[in-house]
Amino acid sequence: MSNKRDYYEVLSVPKGASNDEIKRAYRQLARQYHPDVNKEADAESRFKEINEAYEVLSNAEKRAAYDRFGHAGTQGGFGGFGGGFGDFSSIFEDLFAGMGMGASQTRQAQRGPRRGADLRINLTLTFEEAVFGVDKEVEVTRLEQCTRCVGSGAEPGTNPLRCPQCNGAGEVQRRQQSIFGTILTSSTCPRCNGSGEVVTTPCIECNGRKQLQSTRKLTINVPAGVDDGTQIRLAGEGNQGMSGGPPGNLYVVLTVQQHAVFQRRDNDIVMELPINIAQAALGAEIEVPTLDGTAVVTVPPATQNGRVLRLKGRGVPHLRKSDRRGDQLIGVKIVVPTQLTPKQKKLLEELGETLGTPKLGDERGFFDKLAGALGDAFNG
Ligand SMILES: [Zn+2]
Ligand SMILES: [Zn+2]
Q1: Helix (H) or strand (E) holding 21
Q2: Which has fewest Cβ within 10 Å: 5, 25, 247, 353?
């Protein structure tokens, strides 16, 4: 540590130098001592020293630590030289920018085998199809390998040439001198995009794109118990990959149509059952629709408006355990007659005299009853 030169001295700048001054000094020295151009014996160590000094002095935090503690301040917590990859690459970019090389040239392109894109289609189901499951045929338009050129992009009968730029390797290597010595970077060949071949006569079907839009009929096996918004994933049924990459997936997003009578609440289905005042008072056996045909529900005597009756196991099958089903919940709605025959009117009048007027505040209040009915519907 003790034989290290002062960083300001290394860059030949005063202690109070501005960032611009430091940068300018660094660029000039880096060009002067770059081992590619400077063949003196100590050029490489000078070059390292210059980079190290610049790495610290160009970073406000490190520079402050260095100003306070000297070289000790740039060790440990601050990670010394090369501790931060970000700093390293910024030096690189600064350096190559100074030497007329764009920073982008130091970055590696990412190509080669490419996975096909995922696709998404919508599928609308009836209420019953969602409840019990269904096999549905859908049409999917996706990118597939061109059959004319078998994905080569070259017109049949012609052969792609070996790429002259990479000699068929698909990647090109570049040698760069750096403070750590020679760095070999390999990147995808820009001429052939990594395929190693150059098409001279493109396939007339796909114009050399290697893939074509193709519309396929697929059968979607919709399981019982799906709901609005459920997604079904068909692995590998998306766009085909390129250059040997795997295909994408197909996602089928389900929309479930409303039912005239039923509504769905998770695995239960809910319906409203209108009854007349006599049925409410005396009780009745009433035929109701269910998902599996009709069933008879027993309305007990003295049934109040909003009471919830339950048909066990007549709801929606559970998605992964289709032997288990939810219930059918039947909310009773007492319908007060609006048109009465003279005879009905007379009967009701007689009935009314015997019943009298119900007391105020009897039983539960209206709002409690409302809340209770809703609670029953959800719990039970
Ligand atoms: Zn083709
Ligand atoms: Zn190439």
Answers
A1: helix 19-33
A2: 353
